[in-house]
């Protein structure tokens, strides 16, 4: 999904963007939402808004260090960044994994704090968003292998130029 956005933005001349920008007497080009990439962006923003409302960890500690923790910022070779967002209850925590390259990362290992299956609650590469559909349709199970300084880990498929959000079931 993010890849589609990058494909559109650097190549788009000014005339391709919102042609009525600055003209308060003209309506926005809402009809563009009928077309693939535009509809995909709209669907993605809708899903992100729904995720934000559904996951307290994304807003409860927004302005406090207790709500955020880096898990891995050192994977320069794969350009993957991982962090956790924490809510008031430990059960509300989510892990966000960002793959910042156009290369899918199958079987990528991520360290987690506790045992238990994780479900994908958001994937920016969903076909509904115009993405390629690289996902984790089934829950990923923890393995008793330390990773990223955590006692357990999960293996999952990372989409190209994508974000995956995992939550413990």
UniProtKB/TrEMBL annotation:
InterPro entries: A-amylase/branching_C, Glyco_hydro_b. Residues 134-147 have a biased composition (Polar residues). It comes from the Bacteria. Residues 70-168 form the Alpha-amylase/branching enzyme C-terminal all beta domain. Pfam families: Alpha-amylase_C. GO terms for cellular component: cytosol. Residues 127-152 are annotated as: Disordered. PANTHER family: 1,4-ALPHA-GLUCAN-BRANCHING ENZYME. This is Alpha-amylase/branching enzyme C-terminal all beta domain-containing protein. It comes from Persicitalea jodogahamensis.
């Amino acid at each position: 999904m993010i890849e589609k956005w990058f494909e559109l933005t650097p190549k788009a001349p000014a005339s391709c963007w919102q042609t009525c920008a600055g003209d308060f007497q003209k309506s926005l080009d809402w009809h563009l939402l009928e077309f693939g990439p535009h509809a995909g962006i709209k669907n993605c923003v809708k899903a992100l808004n729904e995720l934000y409302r559904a996951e307290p960890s994304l807003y409860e500690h927004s302005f406090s260090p207790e709500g955020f923790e880096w898990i891995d910022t050192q994977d320069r070779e794969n350009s993957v960044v991982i962090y956790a967002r924490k809510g008031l209850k430990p059960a509300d925590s989510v892990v966000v994994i960002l793959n910042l390259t156009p290369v899918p990362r199958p079987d990528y290992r991520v360290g987690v704090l506790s045992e238990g299956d994780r479900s994908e609650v958001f994937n920016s590469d969903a076909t509904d968003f115009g993405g390629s559909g690289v996902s984790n349709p089934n829950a990923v199970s923890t393995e008793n292998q330390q990773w990223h300084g955590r006692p357990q880990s999960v293996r999952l498929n990372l989409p190209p130029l994508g974000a995956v959000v995992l939550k413990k079931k």
